[in-house]
Amino acid sequence: MIMSGDKDSPSRDDKAPLVYHFPGPVEAPIAEVGGKAFGLMELCRARLPVPSGFVLTVRFFQPWIDAIKSTSAWDGFLRSSEWEHATACQALKAAAEDLTLDTEQAEALVHALKALAPGTLFAVRSSSPEEDIEGTSFAGGYETVLGVTREHMADSIKRAFASCLDHRIVVYKAQHGFDIYDPRIAVIVQAQVDSDVAGVGFSLNPVTNDFDETVLSASWGLGESVVAGQVTPDTYIVDKHTLEIKERRIGNKATAIRLLSSGGTEERREDRTDIPALSDEDAVQLTRLTTAVEKHFGKPMDIEWAIAGGAVYLLQARPITAYVPVAPELLTAPGQPRRLYLDATISAQALYKPLSPMGTSVLQTFVKYMATRLTGRDYSANIDTTLAYVRYGRIYLNVSNALSMLKKDKLARALTHIDPVAAAALDQVPEGMYRARSQVSGGFKLSMLAMYLRRLPFIVEVALFPGNAHQQIGQAREEHLKELRRLAELDMSVSELAREIFDRTANLAVPYFAPIIMLSKVIAPLRLRHIFPESAHELVASLDRSLPNNVTVQMGLELNRLAKRLPGPLSVTELEQGIESRTLPGDFLEGWSHFLDTYGHRGPGELDIASPRYRDNPGMLLQQIAQVLDSSGVTDDAEARFQRSQAARRQAYLTLRGIARHKGWLVRKELDILYRIIENFAGYRETPKYHVVFALDVLRRRLLKEALALVKAGRLEAPEQVFDLTLDNLEDALADATLDLSSLAKANRAFSDRLAQVPELPRLFDSRGRILRPRPRPAGKGEAAGTAVSPGVATGPAKTLHSCDEKPLLKGEVLIARATDPGWTPLFVNAAAVVLEVGGMLQHGALVAREYGIPCVTGVTNATSRWDDGTVLEVDGTAGIVRIASAARPDAG
Predict the structure, then answer these.
(1) Pick from 185, 148, 140: which is nearest to 165 by CA?
(2) Residues 6+ apart with CB under 8 A from 760
(3) Alpha-helix residue ranges (DSSP H) falling in 757-860
(4) Which pLDDT does position 131 carry in this prediction?
């Protein structure tokens, strides 16, 4: 979003220094020296090997900013639209060419240079106050000038300054919510290291997210060739704690950028392409350096380093912006046995963004009552003992504890029905690797067994007398809904209401739905797979298709039938007006009212109590009805498809019965019983959620009522802010009128908001951050293999560019290039994915792709000549594979 601004600059402190030296005794404010310089000064204070230098502050450049803002080019920039910014920025940079140092600036620069040895060459680079801070890297977007002599210092400083006016910076700032009309910059002047080897390092593995691995990229000469993606560097993966080199990949380092003694740099051909740039000792020393930087800043860091004459130098350090943080409670100490977690919010509920703080608090309460009802004690409060752990808007399954109770292959097979991708990743984990030595697994199993023994009469009815079981379930369901409606009318606190309704909900879910779901979804399918050969397993899977008693399917079919009661196509607006004025057919209006009574508590993201319900926003339902009406002439509607799928299920059963005929009477009888269990009860899998969501809706309405009172008292700005609190917060707020609810809300959201910024949260990961994915398969016929550097899968038409301004990259296209440097950054906004011929996992293109959350594959041989523009490609940034998805677009240009 483009932020507005005016011509007036904010006031500056005239007493602030124009120059800060590093190392130096004075601590500089980040607002004056920028993120990059602030980091260098911090590293100097930590006594790390940083080449000496100084920074020209934001105040140093204020006269230039004022001069630029007085030009017609600045007026043109203010008037320009988003699509005209590129041209307007070119005009601004042209205006910057006329800038000169005033007397104060020139004297400050001369005095600063005297502190550095004569004959020193310098690296001149930007240090914006918005750059290299947590969440925004700017990924090399500003200008860097290498090998600068004193004679060319003023021009080099001007080049670095002018980059704050560059279009790529404007695009990045707009994408990240910075004010594009308030350019600010500081510039670093640092002694240039004439490196023999240089590169970059990450204090975690940016591909696997493993916190215990350092990843180093190295090449000959200056590190610019690595950062800019001009070479495919050597890559080293080192265990930070054992210092074992776990992986070493030698890249094709065919060119090197070298420093010229007279100033500047040159690109030279390098013959040592198959020789490692780093010795094992170098890799270990750099790992120690990277770890020291991470320890100093207390967060994952990205560094640039150089080796010259056997000495190691630290050139830059910045926070890693694109990684998946792990909640502190889920972490284990380095070197300790790791736990494995499944994010059930994704796998079971398909919710990729964190739930609200109130949603988290409410689900914690429900899980507590479920655990207590199942086992007689609350296992959920401690990650060491629990199976389900709810924190920071996520529902995590402690897979390590599950593996202490169930063999890995059985758990993976059960998980296949919920999340095949996570199941495939789990299946490839070495046996025993993540199994917990749980002290509670025995007690948990005994508690579960006791619960099932208590429900044995009901389980027998499920297997032998399904009609009786259905009747019991129906009565229990009606009683639950009736009881929750009664509780909603009572005068009790929100926390008391939450405890009561979730106690009632657990009392429904555990005695009735836990046994039937275990029987129909786990035991019966497993037994059928055991009875029948693998060739018949697809038929067994078909038995779980289009089952009765599925409340979610019934809701969809009911909506479809409701639409058929209308005379013809109607817009959402016409439907809304017709309902309000009661002019639509009477049978529709009656059905609409009944539908909202039955399903109005549901809606998208319904597991989060903060999410609006259908009754809150019926337009969501009316949109679906309008779509059904638009396709009313299509005979293959939802009901017809459902009936056809039911027929396919029954046919699969008859086919299995034919196979069972050859196995004897007992097998055929067992098949009949197991099929009856699946057909009658597997559809109930959605019913517990229906009742949980009903309970959430009862509590949601009470919360909004309390929120209105807090708004009236001036303690909340809007009723919806109550969802940024927790149940305990609300209880405390009602008892203490002085409690600062805004501060509580902000604190509650801090970690979940960080998770919300992650483009794709992992399904399966461990307690040291490592993301587990299915093993990439080899490239097949017609596929191209490379190095996976940014995970995810995306499809789009190919667009090959040999320069960043060769032709436009349209929204959703796959960018294909030999390599990218910072000048290409604006193109990543539109790119669906990126494919590069050269470069490693720490080069510019990979960094930007990870930050934007788009798949990227590097090292794809002949990528720029392999596909025609418009060829629809699927880029798998997790497996490192690029394949043709369909034929080329006929209008590709």
Answers:
(1) 185
(2) 352, 791, 792, 853
(3) 844-852
(4) 53
Q: Beta-carbon neighbour count of residue 836 at 10 Å? A: 29
Distance CA 328, CA 428 (A): 27
Distance CA 10, CA 335 (A): 50
Its sign, for the CA torsion 187, 191, 192, 195, is negative
CB 671 within 8 A of CB 469: no
Q: Tell me the residue type at 326.
A: V
Taking the alpha carbons of 497, 500, 503, 504 in that order, is the dihedral positive or negative?
A: negative
What's the alpha-carbon Rg for the chain, to the nearest Å? 32
Q: Is the pTM of this model over 0.85?
A: no
3-state helix, strand, coil in the chain (%, to 5): 45, 15, 40
Sequence-ordered list of residues with C-beta below 8 angstroms from that of 141, at least 6 positions apart, any chain? 131, 163, 166, 168, 169, 172, 822, 825
Specify the amino acid at residue 383: I
d(CA 365, CA 382): 14
- Cα 95 from Cα 158, distance rounded (Å): 11
- What pLDDT sits at residue 637? 63
Half-sphere exposure of 703 (CA within 13 A, CB side): 29
- Within 8 A by CB and 6+ apart from 491, the residues are none
Pairwise pLDDT comparison (451 vs 508), residue with the higher score: 508
Which pLDDT tens digit goes with each residue over 400-413? 998 988 888 888 88
Residue 167: CB atoms within 10 Å? 18
Side-chain-facing half-sphere of 727: CA atoms under 13 Å: 20
Residue closest to 729 by CA, chosen among 738, 720, 739: 739
Both tokens assigned to 267: 């690109």
Reported residue count of the chain is 893
Give, as one character, the DSSP assignment of residue 759: S
**Is pLDDT at 242 greater than 90 in this prediction?**
yes
- Tell me the DSSP string of 412-481: HHHHHTT-HHHHHHHHTSPTTSS----SSHHHHHHHHHHHHHHTHHHHHHHHH-HHHHHHHHHHHHHHHH
Tell me the β-bridge partners of 219: 198
Dihedral over Cα of 275, 842, 203, 763: its sign: negative
Query: What is the per-residue pLDDT across 274-333, written as a single tens digit (0 to 9) for each?
Result: 899 999 999 999 999 999 999 999 999 999 999 999 999 999 998 888 899 999 999 999
pLDDT band at 683 (very low <50, low <70, confident <90, very high): confident
CA 169 from chain centre, in angstroms, equals 24
Contacts of 791 (CB under 8 A, 6+ apart): 207, 760, 771, 773, 855, 877, 878
Identify residue 816 by its one-letter amino acid code: I
Structure tokens at 539: 């038929």
Provide the pairing of β-strand 186-191 with 872-876. Answer: unpaired
- Is there a contact between 559 and 625 (Cβ–Cβ < 8 Å)? yes
**β-bridge partners, 312:** 307
Candidates 195, 217, 146, 215; CA nearest to 312 is: 195
Query: Nearest 10 degrees: CA dihedral of 688, 689, 692, 697?
Result: -140
Question: What is the band of 885 on the pLDDT scale with cuts at 50, 70, 90?
Answer: confident
- What was the pLDDT predicted at 892? 38
Closest-CA residue to 433 (of 338, 341, 343):
338
Phi, psi torsion values for 86, nearest 5 degrees: -60, -45
Contact 701, 693 (CB under 8 A): no
In the chain, what is the greatest distance between 2 CA atoms, to the nearest angstrom? 103
Q: In what order do the strands lie in the sheet with 872-876?
A: 783-785, 881-886, 872-876, 793-800, 814-817, 833-836, 856-858, 787-790
